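User: MotA/TolQ/ExbB proton channel family protein. Structure?
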Amino acid sequence: MASTPVDTAGAAETTEKTLSVISLITSGGIGGIVIMGMLFVLSIIAVYIFVERFGAIKRANKQDPNFMNNLKDHIANGKMESAKALCESTDTPVARLLEKGVVRIGKSMGDISASIENQGKIEVQKLESGLPYLATIAGGAPMIGFLGTVIGMVLAFKEMANAGGQIDVSLLAEGIYTAMTTTVGGLFVGILAYFGYNYLTTRVESVIYKMEVSATEFLDLLHEPV
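Assistant: Predicted structure:
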């Protein structure tokens, strides 16, 4: 029965020494709060870009399997207006790409090919919109976090210098691991943005491959003898 108060006191002491994430952030002073605030804003931006681009690329990657067959039938039968209408009614990069080729049927192959290539560049730029910002966050967030750690370490050593021979080791240790939280935050945001960027880049390359295959099929169709 006598051991119960001791256990309770021990548990209270353990709880008291345990710092929450919010406590770690706020105990870093104004500098730590500003750095962590910047990282929080960057994380929100990164998540927004990822979700928005993921949806856009997913929509761009969808394509009716009968689209190319129907387009080939219209062109083979000389129904250029129907072929153009089919492309206009299909909201995909491939359809917009081939529409540029359809409206130029009758001109030189070089003109048709150049038109398709130019539209392809525009579509790729649309798909990659926002990805440079995600890449910047992936590289910049860890550096911002490290900046916060360096500032915290400078302040910790300043406290050591001011204390002279009366150095409080526990206070110094608290200041150091509080400063390190900014590096942890920066790495966390940077790693998420890095993996998100690489994943989206891979998805974009998949769409680009489909556009290249479709453009090649379209040009091959025009090369076929009538």
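The radius of gyration is 30 Å. The longest helix spans residues 169-223.
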